[in-house]
Amino acid sequence: MSARLASATASLRSLSFKILAGLRRAAHFIWRAAIIVVRLLLLAFLTVLVTAWAISTPKDHPYRVLDPDSRDCNMRIGENGNYASPAWNILAAYGNAENEAALKDEAGRWDTRFQCAIQRHEVPVPRADDNNRSNALGYTLAFLEFKEDGEPFELIKDPHQLFTMNELTDRVSYIERSSWKPITQLEALNAHLRSVEKRTHADEFGNAVKHSNYVIVFVHGWRHDASIGDGNVTDLRAYAAHVARYLRDRCIAGESEHCGREVTAVYVGWRGARLNETRLHLPFIAMGNSVGALLDGDASQCSNGVLPSEKPLCWKNWINSWGDSLASGVVTLTLFDRKPVSEYIAPHALMALRKIEQVLSKQPGTKAKQRDNPNKMIVIGHSLGGNMLATALKDHLIKAVHNHPGANAYFYPPLGDLVVLINPAAEASKWTDVQRAVWEKVAFFEGEGDLMAGHRFFPAHQSPVVISVTSAYSWPPGGIRPGDCAIAMRQKLSLLGQDVNSPDEICARYKQFLEAKKPGEFIFHDETPNPDERACGALRTPFALDQAVANIDRKKKIGIKSDLATYLAFPLFRGDLRPLGAMIAGVARDLRAACENFSLPENRQDQRALRFWQRVGEFVSDLPFQNTDIESSRTIGHLDPPRSSVNLVDTLRMPARQLGTTHEIRSIRWAPPSQADYKDIPADPSLNCAVSHDWLTRARRAQTNGTQWESAMLALPLDPDSANPRGSGGHPAVEMTHGFRLAGMLPITRANDPFWNMRAYDDVLMSHGGFMFSSFICAINQFVMDRPTRWPLPTPPAELQSPPMPPEPNRPAADAPKIRGRAK
C-alpha cells in the first residue's frame, strides 16, 4: 500500500514538475515574444519619427507670395484694366506639370515665376473646330495662403528679398485708399477682381460687352499645400480651364451673359502636408521606371492604376504604388495634428472669402439681388478643406435655418453662389446639426403639423446652397440583402435574354416568352396567357435591380474605388474600429458577386478563409472602449440613414433616423469616367457641357411634391418668359436622385431642401482624390453657370395692377331651403 502511495506521489510530483517546466517555458516564450514585439514597435516608432523629422515640410512657409508687379511676374494692370504682359501657355506643352516645365525650360525662370501670387494662364487651341472655337482658353490663378495660426502672408519683392518697412509704407502712402498697392495676397487678388469689371470688349456687332468675374475657390485638404508641383494646384488649373471652355461654348451658343465672364481660380493654401511625401516616393519612381523599361513591353496593354480597368498593372505603376502605399502609411499619423489646424484656420479663411464676396457685391446684405449680379462664385473644399468650410459655416447655417421664415421664402447661399464639399474629412455632426435645425421646422409625419407647409418651407424654385459629395463604400446604403436578390430574379430574367436595355423591351420579351416557353419555365407563379400592364409593370423593379446588381458585379471585378480615407482612416483617427472590422469581415465575401454573398463557397479552402476573415473582423469590431458615437466618428458622407428591417427595396419607408446622406449621384447610364488631358480641354468634343436651364424644376414637377425626383426623368420643357427668353435647357451632365434609387427607403429631406449630402458612385467621384472627371466638373458648375430652377416672375407694382373687382353679395343656392322669420 505504501509502495503504491509512494509511486503515486512520485508520479504527481513528476507531473507537477513537468507542468511547472512547461509553464516556465511558455512564460519565457511569451516574455521573449513580448520583448520582440516591443522592440519592433519601438523600431517602427523611431523609424517613423526619424523619417518624419527628415522629410518634414517647413512651418509657416509661403510658396506663392511673389509680388504681381515684380519683374518676374510682370502683372501690372493698366488704366483700362488690361494687363501689360501676355498670359503664360508654357504648361500646355508640359502636361500641366510645373516641375517639368521649370526643369526643362530653365531659361524661362519658371521656378521663380510660378511663385507669383497672381498668374495668368492660357491653353492654346490646336486648330479651330466646327463651332469656330479657335481662341485660346484664358484664366487667372491666384493664391491665398495662411499660417498655422490663421495669419496671412505678405507679398515679397523677389524670392530672396522681402520688402523693407519703408517700401511697404510707400505702397500705402496715398490719401485715396483705392490707390494703395497690395501688401498681401488677398489685396492683390481683390485688385485683380476689380480690374476685371473695368474691362470691356466689342462683340461682332460692335456692341460693348462689359466683363464680369467667375470665381472658383478651392480649399485643399490633407497631404497638400501650395508648393510648386502640388497635385491640387494642378487640378485647380484643369478645373479653371474646363470652366473657361464651358463659358466660351455658352457664349457661342447665344448665352450672351457669359461672353464677358473671366475665370479666376483661387487656391486657398495651408500646411496640410506636414511631410514631404515626394522624398519617400522618388526611389520607387526611379525603380519603377527602370524595371518597367525592361519588363513592361507595350504599356498600352496594362492599366495605369488610376482609372478602373480589367487590364493588369504595369510593373512601373505597380512599383510606384508601393511607394505611394509607404508614403500613405507614414503620413497617416499626421491626420491627428492637421485636422485641428484646419479648424483653427477656418474662421480666418472665411473672413478672407467674405472680403472676396464684398468685392463681387455678394455679401449677405445683397443676397436677394444676386440673380441679377453678373459675378459668380463657387467655393469648393476637399478633404480637410471640406472640414475647414464645414467648421466655418456650421453655426451660420444653423442660425440661418432658425431665422428662415418658411412659406416659400428663398434660402440664400451662405457663401458665394454655391459651396461644394468633396469627400469632406469632417464629423457627421457638422452636417446633422444643420439637419436637426431643419427637422425642427418641417413636419414629416401626421400629428407634427401641417405637412404641406413642410413642402413649402423652402420654395419650389430653391436651388442647393451647400452640396457634400462623397465616394460611397457600399451600394445601396446598408448593402444588398438576400430578399433583394430574390426580387432581382436574376436567373429568371436571364430566360428573356441578356441584351435587354429597357423596361419596355423586357415587357415585350416577357410576352414573347409566354408564347414560346417550355414546360416548367416561368416568371410569376400567377402568370396569365395574356399578361396585362400590371404584370409588365411588376417587372420594372426586378429589371432595374438586376441591372444595378450586374453593374456592381462588373465594378467588383476591376475594383470599386471608394474613398477609404474618410470611410476607414477617419473613424480610426476618432477611435472607432467598426468600419475596419466590417471591411475585414467582408474581404472574402465582397470579392464575389453581390447576390452570391449569402451562400458559402463550394471550395473548402475558400470556406475556411471566409470564416477566418469573418472571425478576425468580428474580433476587431468587438474590441472594448471604442468611440460608438457615429455622428462624431463617421464623416459627413459616410453616415447613411438606416434602412428599415421590415421592407425590401421595392417597398419605401421613412427611416427611423432621418439624418445623414440625402441624394445619389452617378454617371449617365453607367458610362465609364473620362479625364481629359490639359492640352485637349479647349477642343475635345467629349468635354461638351450642355446648357441645363430649368432641369431641377422640371425634375421636381415630374413627381408628386417633387419627392424622389430623378434628373433622368424631367417634365416637359418650360415656356420662355421675360426672365428666361431662351427657355429650358437639357439634362445635367450626371444623374442625380432625391433619396436613393432601389434602397427601400423614402428620402429623409423634402424635395426643395437646399442641403444635399450626396453618395457618389466611383464613375463620378473616385477614391479620395479622384474629383477630376469632366462630367463631375461640368455638373457642379452647371448649378452656377446655368439656372437649374425657374423662378416665378416678379409681381408687378401695385400701381400697375388692375383694381380688384368688388365682391359679389352672397346669394342662396337655388335649392336652399327658405327660412321664415329671424335667424337664430
How would you sum up this structure, described in words?
The protein has 824 residues and is an alpha/beta fold. 38% of the residues lie in helices and 8% in strands. It has 24 helices and twelve strands. The chain has a ten-stranded mixed β-sheet, with helices on both faces. It has a two-stranded antiparallel sheet with strand order 3-4. Helix 13 crosses helix 17 and helix 19 (578-585) runs antiparallel to helix 21 (604-621). The longest helix has 53 residues, at 2-54. The radius of gyration is 32 Å and the shape is globular. The N and C termini lie far apart (121 Å).
Note the topology.
Layout: H1 2-54, H2 98-104, H3 110-113, E1 118-123, E2 137-145, H4 165-171, H5 185-198, E3 200-202, E4 208-210, E5 212-219, H6 231-252, E6 261-269, H7 277-295, H8 315-331, H9 335-359, E7 376-382, H10 384-403, E8 418-422, H11 429-439, H12 451-455, E9 466-471, H13 482-488, H14 490-493, H15 503-516, H16 533-538, H17 540-558, H18 564-573, H19 578-585, H20 587-590, H21 604-621, H22 630-633, E10 663-666, H23 695-701, E11 735-738, E12 755-760, H24 774-785
Parallel strand pairs: 2-6, 5-6, 5-7, 7-8, 8-9, 9-12, 10-12
Antiparallel strand pairs: 1-2, 3-4, 10-11
Helix pairs in contact: 5-9, 6-24, 7-8, 9-10, 10-11, 13-17, 19-21
Summarize the structure.
The protein is of the alpha/beta class. The protein contains 24 helices and 12 strands.
